[in-house]
Design brief:
alpha+beta, 2 domains, five-stranded mixed sheet, 9 helices, 57% helix, elongated
Length: 257
């Protein structure tokens, strides 16, 4: 982490930035990808209080139901493992698995064994007939299910945001390449893409770190495929491109001299 912060500081020195914009675009993309990962680490730390409050959240939501029951009648001819190798979830009514070991969820004819934050819990099969009477236990179960799927959700969120900012880098880099081509600040398309990639760290960090608290203040412009485009990061990204393009231009002149 310390090394990444040091590299971030070095990147934004004028001379270093000028030299980096002359490098292959894939290096700019690699920097942008690492920066997004760093932002995700910060976001994950900020989400910890929300994770701790998950059981209370589900308990509150279930209080809105007048009645709720789940049919728990099922039988299997042999234990079902998901995934096949790790057995994160095991469904078994044959009696082979009666007590949980390494698995996160063990579903038997007796009920559901599960773990949440390293603590073991058990819900009897009869409890599924009246979920609301055992609201506290089911709130823990729903929280445990969400915690298990969180890594997959985080991965896909990372990929969607990566794709969004990559397309923004291409779009803004191309737009400002065209505009700057009409001035004496003229830069190559690769340089403008590099500048757009490096300065994306700032608006990207602001957007990702804001997710645990809400992003309304960033002024959503429109939403597509579940991904929002915000006015504040977009304007900030554009302004930073102009500023860094000027800095690179001046650094380039000094390098030539």
């Amino acid at each position: 982490m310390r090394e990444l912060l040091r590299k971030l500081f070095l990147v934004f020195t004028a001379r270093n930035l000028y030299e980096r914009t002359l490098q292959p675009f894939r290096k700019s993309v690699w920097f942008f990808s690492k920066s997004l990962f760093f932002a995700f680490v910060i976001m994950g730390l900020l989400y910890i209080p929300t994770l701790v409050r998950l059981p209370a959240y589900f308990d509150q939501q279930m209080s809105k139901f007048k009645s709720l029951s789940i049919d728990s009648n099922f039988t299997v001819s042999s234990p079902v493992y998901f995934p096949e190798r790790d057995g994160l979830i095991i469904i078994d009514t044959t009696g082979l698995h009666q007590k949980p070991k390494y698995e996160r969820f063990l579903i038997t004819h007796e009920g559901v064994f599960f773990k949440l934050f390293r603590e073991s819990h058990f819900i009897k099969a009869e409890s599924f007939k009246d979920v609301l009477s055992h609201r506290d236990s089911f709130a823990l179960l729903f929280a445990a299910i969400l915690v298990v799927v969180l890594p997959a959700l985080a991965f896909w969120l990372y990929m969607f945001l990566w794709l969004k900012y990559f397309l923004l880098i291409i779009l803004l880099g191309s737009v400002f390449f065209t505009l700057f081509d009409l001035t004496h600040w003229r830069k190559s398309w690769k340089q403008m893409l590099g500048i757009a990639a490096y300065v994306s760290f700032v608006p990207m960090m602001i957007e990702v770190v804001s997710l645990p608290f809400g992003t309304e203040y960033l002024l959503p412009v429109f939403e597509t495929m579940g991904i929002d485009l915000y006015a504040v990061p977009l304007v900030l990204h554009s302004v930073l491109i102009v500023i860094l393009a000027f800095v690179v231009h001046m650094a380039g002149k000094h390098a030539v001299e």
